[in-house]
Amino acid sequence: MSTMTERSVDVLLIGGGIAAATAARTLREEGFTGSVLLVGRELDPPYHRPPITKGHLQGTESKADMLIELPADVEVLTRSSVMALDPTAKTVTLSTKDTVTFEHALIATGAMVRRLPLDGADKDGIHYLRTPGNADALRKDAGGARRVVMVGGSYVGCETAASLTTLGNHCTILMQEEEPFDRHFGRTAATYLRSVLESHGVTVRGGVDVEAFTGEGDVVQGVRLAGDEIVPADVVVCGVGAIPDVLLARKSGLPIGDLGGVRCDARLRVEGFPGIYAAGDMCEYTSTVHGRELRVEHEEHAAAQGATVARVIMGSGDPHTEVPYFFSDLADWCSLEYVGPAADWADEVIDGSVEEGAFSVTYVDAQRRVLACLSVNGSGDLDAARERIASREPLG
Ligand SMILES: Cc1cc2nc3c(=O)[nH]c(=O)nc-3n(C[C@H](O)[C@H](O)[C@H](O)COP(=O)(O)OP(=O)(O)OC[C@H]3O[C@@H](n4cnc5c(N)ncnc54)[C@H](O)[C@@H]3O)c2cc1C
Predict the structure, then answer these.
(1) Fewer CB atoms inside 10 A, N or C side of the chain?
(2) Are residues 144 and 228 in the same domain?
(3) Cα 238 to Cα 123, 202, 270, 300, distances in angstroms
(4) Does the beta carbon of 131 lie inside 6 Å of ligand 1?
(5) How far away, in angstroms, is 342 Cα from ligand 1 center?
(6) Dist. CA 147 → ligand 1 center (Å)
(7) Domains in the chain: how many in total?
(8) For a pocket test of ligand 1, which of 14, 49, 335 has the largest count of ligand atoms closer than 8 A to its C-beta?
(9) Residue 267 sits in which domain range?
């Protein structure tokens, strides 16, 4: 029989992802000697998510390989949710019914997969990817050269199609946009990425609307498109985006911004609540580098924000000035790196050779100021791009 406890810590880290884990590491690296408690609701302690669609799905990276090392003197509670947060009294209640008071709290609850509320959505064989367990279930289900249909032509859809193709599956990507990654990278890069996927046997179909999942009984057998065509499928993977997990934040009265994240200032302090910070996928902050509000869903960005919060807790007055970066791999066919982000742009400057798959795309505004840069197969100078994004100097 468990008994309820009340305790207090100096720093409470809510959520067991990379943002919280990096905050814990940075606190210790920078010499913080107070007590640190990390509370996460997953089965596993903090781990890297990117291998879920890559090495872990392909079976080359185990769950143990994905774990993030934490200092021994950081207390970690897994399988425990923060159920209630009183940001003024500075106390939380856990799913164990224990209460914890704190001096500082980082809320880093990440994001949840966006689900497609279509007819047939509850059939067996339809997968979403957020955890290593999701990837294990998909690999098992897709085993044996089966037909896998991806709904969504962005990172999850394209990376998963590449990984499952290397395992012998036949993969089809269905997406509303005309080309994969179109919305992120523009037409030149998107057309190139389609050619990479197709040259390895992936079927890519743009400009289609998925209306329902079909099949006799409980098991999915196809995906119905607008116009009634049915694309046969033994397995379906939906990669249609993530939703910032602000359930706890909203319930606690923390401010939610227009981009769907918890509203923070340039130092990632939650507006109106001293001692409360946010980082990662659900943090919406004022970027002094970009001169606007940002919310970014990428691993290194989440880590960098966790580190910023640790420093701010230790008294730093510096804003978060990291230019967001991410990478994506389509099996070993192609690697992408990007700094930015740019939601729209006036022009694309291409350097290198698109035909040879060794090029970069620099996205500029009407004044030719650099907004973002995509490097394909390591061809771009991302450090130079970072500097230009931060300086806002027009390209020469
Ligand atoms: C399949 C996949 C592949 C990806 N690949 C890439 C990639 O190649 N490159 C890249 O840059 N990014 C990639 N990303 C994105 C990257 O993983 C995320 O941006 C990053 O994980 C965000 O970290 P976070 O700490 O903000 O949140 P999360 O990793 O979501 O962690 C938040 C944690 O908090 C927990 N939690 C939520 N509420 C509570 C609560 N009330 N109490 C306790 N715990 C709670 C959640 O269960 C979760 O474990 C990928 C993401 C996915 C899903």
Answers:
(1) N
(2) yes
(3) 13, 16, 33, 24
(4) no
(5) 22
(6) 28
(7) 3
(8) 49
(9) 8-112+243-313
